[in-house]
Specification:
The chain has 369 residues and is mainly α. α3 packs parallel to α9, α6 crosses α17 and α14 runs antiparallel to α15. The protein is globular, with a radius of gyration of 20 Å.
Length: 369
């Protein structure tokens, strides 16, 4: 898991740098702003879509932020969005994409732990991901209008449809590969998400200035991506130490011993806080599996979906806060604290939806599974 996560992390960083330094992100942003007439809500919808889609097929919010998040920054800066608001929007939409089907790594960890086949999960996951994405669109559009920030002096009419399509070509190639390997599984070999992102990044090579490729490769394996890669390795070592010393077993027993109604607030508070240190993927494995067993009397698909959404809240909790930290990295200026407070309302919507799914699982089972 650590190796695959690091591969995805560096592949996402490579894709993001290629799109950013080739000018593809600027061209796509200018075209989208012109297409939407400078209106905030449609622009948020169109620039958020690539992040959501990448999150769907990669299953980890941090990789979606690093790769597709670069499309958001130039477009929203043209509309006068504050950098902290841009970073928060990127992080929230990436989390929504991570929760959505067909790939949700935290949910897949839980389903593997409870021996649940990864089938019939789409409706339950979409019931959490889509409302979160819609809440984010409404919230950040309102937040921008309320801030009263003046638009920059940049000419918002700049951009063309052709330039926009050229700028979007790297992400369109990635999406096309992901769709083809699922529609025609016997005709195409799935190259895995990291390689797909590398292929998509290479599409931007013709748009790169001379000598820029070597700088991009160097930036991919240095700075924040390298630090987060080290964090993932450290978390993996820490989890193994927890297993060998019995701490993991104690957490499992404690989680399965939770009784209603205290189990709901305990999970809602405990999973994000522990996940802030261990990452959302790891806390889903350690706490999510026994928590799903503690609700064994109801539909397991809904248990897995709801608990994966609760674990996703850890993407904003220090010290790791991966989605928030990487959003700050691609924007360049805000702090994780600024991102957290701006992202809090839509993430509160997600937390409420997850708890309601657990509470009313018997009634929702016939609808969402």
């Amino acid at each position: 898991d650590v190796c695959s996560s690091n591969l995805g992390l560096f592949a996402g960083a490579f894709f993001g740098h290629m799109v950013n330094r080739s000018g593809a992100a600027d061209a796509a942003g200018a075209g989208i702003v012109k297409l939407c007439g400078g209106r905030a809500l449609p622009v948020l919808l169109l620039v958020g879509l690539p992040i959501f889609v990448v999150g769907m097929f990669v299953g980890l919010a941090g990789i979606a932020v690093l790769s597709a998040g670069v499309y958001v920054v130039p477009a929203l800066r043209r509309l006068g969005f504050h950098d902290a608001t841009i970073a928060a929007f990127v992080a929230v939409i990436a989390v929504a994409g991570m929760i959505a089907p067909p790939v949700n790594v935290p949910a897949m960890h839980i389903s593997d732990g409870v021996n649940m086949p990864w089938t019939n999960v789409s409706r339950a996951l979409l019931a959490l991901a889509v409302p979160l994405a819609l809440a984010a669109l409404v919230w950040f559009s309102w937040l921008h209008s309320r801030s009263g920030a003046a638009a920059p002096t940049t000419d918002n009419t700049a951009g063309s449809l052709g330039g926009c399509l050229r700028g979007l070509s790297p992400i369109l190639v990635c999406v096309a590969i992901w769709i083809l390997v699922r529609v025609f599984p016997t005709a195409f070999v799935d190259p895995a998400a990291p390689l797909v992102l590398v292929i998509g990044g290479l599409v931007a090579v013709p748009m790169l200035p001379r000598g820029e490729l070597s700088k991009i490769v160097n930036a991919t394996f240095t700075g924040t991506p390298l630090l987060l890669g080290a964090v993932l390795v450290a978390v993996g070592v820490f989890v193994q130490s927890m297993t060998l010393t019995g701490v993991r077993g104690w957490l499992v027993i404690s989680t399965m011993s939770l009784v209603a109604p205290w189990n709901y607030p305990s999970l809602l508070i405990g999973m994000p806080l522990i996940g802030g240190s261990l990452t959302s993927m790891t806390v889903a494995d350690i706490i999510g599996v026994p928590a799903a067993f503690s609700f064994i009397g109801q539909d397991m698909i809904l248990n897995v979906a709801a608990l994966s959404a609760i674990s996703a809240l850890a993407e904003f909790i220090p010290p790791t806060s991966i989605a928030a930290a990487l959003s700050c990295y691609i924007v360049g200026t805000p702090s994780v604290g600024q991102v957290f407070w701006r992202a809090l309302p839509p993430m509160a919507v997600l937390a409420a939806l997850a708890v309601l799914m657990l509470l009313f699982a018997p009634r929702l089972a016939g609808i969402l599974t």
